Structures are given as C-alpha cells and as structure tokens.
Amino acid sequence: MTETVLAGASTAPAAGRRRKAAAPKPAGTDRIPQPSQGWYRDPITGAKLRRVTTILGQGFPKPGLLFWAANLTAADALANLPELVRSSRRPEDREAAYDWLRKGHIRKKEERGDVGTAAHNLVEAHVLGRPLPEEILNDQEMAPYLEHFLRFVADWEVVFHASEMTVGNYSDGWAGKLDYLFKSRPIAQVLEVPADTLFIGDTKTGGELDEKGVYAEAGLQMSAYRRAEVAWLLDGTQVPMPAVHSTGIVLHLRPEGYRPHPLLCGDDVYAAFLHVQQVAEFERVLSKAVVGAALTLPVPKEGTL
Prior knowledge:
This protein is α+β, with helices and mostly antiparallel strands. 42% of the residues lie in helices and 20% in strands. The chain contains ten helices and ten strands. β7 (230-232) and β8 form a beta hairpin. The chain starts with 33 loop residues before the first strand and ends in a 15-residue tail after the last helix.
C-alpha cells in the first residue's frame, strides 16, 4: 500500500496557507533506478551512482579502437574513391564528403549496436517467458542468432535465474544492469565447481567466432556486477545481491554459431575495476583543472631594474 503524505505535514496547518501534497513515494517498478547521462539515480534515497559502462568507457584504454577506426576509414575511402574525388572538386560537396568519411566508425558502431540490442531483447524475452518482439520474429538477420542462442541453452542445460537485472554498490558509488544470472550443470562440470553454482552471463555479438569479439573489459564489467551490494527485482523490490562465482560466462553469439567463454571476474579483477573508476573520475573532474593558463612574466615595479 502506498501512503500519500503532505510535505511538512503538521497537525494544524497555519491559517490561510495551503500545503502542497508531496509526490507519491515511488512504488513497484518505479523504485528501480534508471540510467540517464552516465548515472543511475535511486528514486527512493536520491543517491546518484555512476554507470558501470560509463566508467569503463572513460577509464579503460582501448588502443585497438584507434586502429579499427583508421582501417574502417581507409576501407570506406577506397570503396568510394571515385565519388570522393568528385566531391573534393566541388566546394559545396567537400564538407559533406569529409563528414561522411570521418563518421564511418560511428555508423558501424550503430549498426552493431542495433544487432546487439536485438540479441539482448531475444535473450530477455526467452528468460522471462515473454513472446519474442515482432521486429525480431520478422527480421531474417536475427533468425540465426535466435537459433544459436536456443542451441546454447539446450546444449549447456542452462537454467536462468534473472535477466536484465539492475544492481548497485552504494559503498563504491556505481550501478549497472547485468545481462543474466544462470546455472548450468555442464559448465559447472567443466569448471569443476558444484552443479548448483550461480554464474553471471553476458552476450556479445561483435567480431568473429574464435578470433575476436570477447575482450577483457567484459571481465571488469562482470567483476563489478558480482560485487554489487543490492539488486532490484522486476517488481521493484530491492534485495541483496546473490553470491555468484568468480568466473563469469560470455556467450559469443554470431550468425555462424556460438561460443561460451569463461572470464575471470573475481576480487583481483574488481580491484582493477576500482582503479579504472579512479581514472574515469579523474577524466570527468580533475583533468579539467590540471592544466593552467600559460604564465606571463610579472610587470616590473616602478624604480626597479
């Protein structure tokens, strides 16, 4: 039951003053913090928690992305060379061509992001027993992803316990949304742990099977989720984060197949995540004040040499 109270209520309001009714306390799913501009805000306490993916984006070096973007730009230029040459000769088209060329990596990331989002949606629908979204059912590009995901579930006897669950750590100041928690007897057997071990899982759709697409950054992300203090259930109830194993599983899902990869996400990896968090905080705040304006020589006082 939700109580509605008056802001600053007293037994006898002052004569002639009308007090405003306070907004109802968040209830149900409204109690779950939602991401906005790199933060999660707890609607009950008002606490702001930094988003885990934002921390990793600002604090974890990704030198490979530099070469990936450069290679993509070079490939786009060669594939469209005649049109680029024509545009370079027309001042009215030159700026548009330049803009198109330099944003190739953004277009590619958005394209990959669309596939990744759709893959997460199909996983979530399966875990929660909901009908698959129409846009996925009607998308031929997503058909192999669904097929290989269902194969993974069947082959590895996966039993899901949570999906897209928001978790947070008030002590260290962060929050995020993990993909899923699950149990798998075959995975537990391979890792030589008890059959009822609970694992953190994540799905990645980029790269190529057995070559690239699963990176150490995912271990940092899962190490944070593993060390969450609290979690929010689908109905908005806040509960303690359940204990999960120090090895997480990344499901690399591609049109040509799937691979489950174990990733370390224990306390030593979490210590590295906290270091990344410090770097990200430096970048967000202190870096803007580190470099001062150039110094100028003081003006000599009158009568001095």
